[in-house]
Every structure is written in structure tokens, then in C-alpha cells.
Write a structure and sequence with these properties.
Radius of gyration: 17 Å
Order of helices and strands: HHHHHHHEE
Largest sheet: 2 strands, antiparallel
Shape: globular
Low-confidence stretches: none
Helix content: 55-70%
Distance between the termini: 21 Å
Mean pLDDT: 82
Structural class: mainly alpha
């Protein structure tokens, strides 16, 4: 369940997500850049930050049709980044693709399993985001908007 208690209101949440973005990604880079291939990890951080900024911008614009596919892409990049941080040898697959001496790319299902200790429910979240992004049941049903954050009303 998503706990929104720490936010005063929607605008407060968006402001925090916007203002903390550069600092947060810089801290992630400082923590993880050393043990993994710098080019790959720098690319992860850059892409995650760009997607984060797009998600926040589209949240502010009340555009779930952009937010949810962007969030799905963010989850993919985050998952690959976590996997490479744990398994630095996989960076070659990310950099050069599968080939002689390099394994095939892992499925997201196997990547979610590999990082489940840090993000246990990521596979379930990704399943819903994929359903939305590929215009499944959730995509069709997402034509509604939040009418009142205070009363949690949707119209």
C-alpha cells in the first residue's frame, strides 16, 4: 500500500520529487559508481534521472498516459542497474549485447527474481505497468482522473 501521509498535498509531493531529483541521483552515483563499469552505471543514472523528471512533469500535468509507461521504463532501468551492481560481469552484456563469451540478455522475470531481496514486489508492479503500457485491461480502465485527493475521489 502506498503511504501518502508524509505529503501535505499533491503539490507538495510533486515539489519534493522535483527538488530532490538531482541530489538523489548524485547520491546513488556516489554510492555505486566504484564497483561497476562507469560507462554503464553513468548511463543508468542519466536515464533514470531523465525518466524521473519526465514522470514528475507528467504527474504535474495530470497525464497518467505518459506517467505509467515512463514509470515502467524507469523500473526496467532500475532493475538492470541493481542487477549489474550485484553482478558486474553482466555490464558487458549491457554494453555489447550477447555474443561470444557473453551470456544472453536476462528476461525481466529473472532480473526481478535476482533483486527480490531489495525490491520484493517489483515483478508485480511491472506486470501492472506493462498491462497499462500495452493497453491491456488497466490501460482501458485508466480513462479516469482524480477528482479529490483529500476524499480520494476518482471521476
Amino acid at each position: 500500500m502506498l503511504d501518502l501521509a508524509r505529503f501535505v498535498d499533491r503539490d507538495d509531493a510533486i515539489a519534493l520529487a522535483t527538488n530532490e531529483c538531482p541530489k538523489t541521483y548524485t547520491e546513488v552515483a556516489k554510492t555505486y559508481m566504484g564497483p561497476v563499469v562507469t560507462e554503464v552505471f553513468g548511463s543508468f543514472i542519466s536515464r533514470m534521472r531523465g525518466l524521473h523528471e519526465g514522470i514528475v512533469r507528467e504527474l504535474a500535468a495530470n497525464n497518467p498516459h505518459a506517467v505509467l509507461p515512463l514509470l515502467r521504463a524507469w523500473v526496467e532501468v532500475n532493475t538492470i542497474g541493481l542487477y549489474v551492481a550485484r553482478n558486474p560481469g553482466y555490464a558487458d552484456v549491457v554494453l555489447y549485447g550477447p555474443g561470444p563469451g557473453r551470456p544472453a540478455r536476462k528476461s525481466f522475470s529473472s532480473l526481478f527474481h535476482a533483486v527480490k531481496d531489495e525490491v520484493a514486489q517489483l515483478g508485480l508492479v511491472y506486470k501492472d505497468l506493462s498491462d497499462y503500457a500495452h493497453f491491456g485491461t488497466l490501460g482501458v480502465g485508466n480513462t479516469y482522473v482524480v477528482a479529490s485527493m483529500e476524499d480520494r475521489l476518482i471521476t
